[in-house]
């Protein structure tokens, strides 16, 4: 593993899950310096250029360059008759992707970092209202965020004339009523408006017409959390954190039957082996690695031949998957790939908003076929049907990216675990259920163990 200082990883350096820093503690640790620099010393256009130069990419899954996204927000002179009465910044803290739990750590462990980050981002796009859209079950995050927001108001970092400037920002916490689709940015905007959380057609993109029809930026928690550090230390520092062309750090997660499940912030571009074996300690005794989803449930399987691929956006996509949320889900030798894919597809079928036919009808149809195969009642024609469904539900044929994401573990599973599918059909049962009765390990079990560590810090 390339050497780096685990104590110098910026996003999680101040994480304290038991007792996060309050306002005074955060300021004493250097907090709010980035926001102060932005608001008191820089024009919004300077901050935008800095973020563009840093090369920061969105950590919500798609990896879209953050500065470029912000640059699509129209800027207006004060006396411009077309100036909208508001623009909005929204932090996407929905985090319902199975196998993904990185944002929760930042929110629970260092809530002021996100508040500071949102001040910087909102100032840059000239928004005076900002929202944190939080997963409803994240009760502790909600409590800690609300406390941080109140402290920021009390200390002049939110509200009118922030730190004596002309800039005004109100920040609201909104807890989700709870659907996976609410994480899709336009469905999130609908939910925030009090409407049914169906994704919107794009264009228009939210940067131009988003929340209440006004220019809106939606960014992920981890994306935003980089901003105070980029403001403080500069674009070159940010680029130098990573050994390759994708800059910065990444919070990698591992779930499944490894020795230590958890989260680790590391330079972007560490290899999968560095994360899976170097940090998570490899698989539990007696188990072998069959494959893994590198970036949450909606990414394509990779296998042990990919262990030395760097975990960054470009390199993972070159081998046919996506970095996604960088939450690695491990498939071990006592876990049935067909059962695991069935489990995931059940989730996606349940969470489909039902708006478009390929997703509404396709996901339950896949579940029906996979259930048949897993129960030993499948036929060879079912494999053909599954391959066709992967095509019918692919990008460009659906209203949003939910169904294409759902298809990723399926289409790659059909490629890498073809023999497993065939064995189910030929033997008339799940081979693992037959061979391993008595080992005491439940099939179709993904992440029963809660994450055990963040940067080696144990937590409950
Ligand atoms: C079905 C679905 C669920 C999503 N869930 C999340 C989520 O929970 N958190 C998130 O940040 N992005 C999620 N996204 C991606 C968002 O639509 C959006 O791209 C992201 O919030 C942009 O932030 P970024 O540019 O900082 O990455 C989801 C996308 C889809 C299609």
Keywords:
single chain, 460 residues, alpha/beta, Rossmann fold, Ubiquitin-like (UB roll), de novo design (two linked rop proteins), six-stranded mixed β-sheet, four-stranded parallel β-sheet, 19 helices, globular, disordered C terminus, binds flavin mononucleotide
Question: Would you summarize the structure shown here?
Answer:
The chain has helices at 23-28, 33-41, 44-54, 66-71, 102-109, 111-125, 139-154, 185-192, 221-225, 227-233, 235-240, 272-279, 313-318, 337-351, 357-374, 380-392, 402-416, 418-427, 431-435; strands at 88-93, 129-134, 170-175, 216-220, 249-255, 262-267, 289-293, 327-332, 453-454, 457-458. A hairpin with a 2-residue loop joins strand 9 and strand 10.
Chart the SSEs and their pairings.
Blueprint: H1 23-28, H2 33-41, H3 44-54, H4 66-71, E1 88-93, H5 102-109, H6 111-125, E2 129-134, H7 139-154, E3 170-175, H8 185-192, E4 216-220, H9 221-225, H10 227-233, H11 235-240, E5 249-255, E6 262-267, H12 272-279, E7 289-293, H13 313-318, E8 327-332, H14 337-351, H15 357-374, H16 380-392, H17 402-416, H18 418-427, H19 431-435, E9 453-454, E10 457-458
Parallel strand pairs: 1-2, 1-4, 2-3, 5-8, 6-9
Antiparallel strand pairs: 5-6, 7-8, 9-10
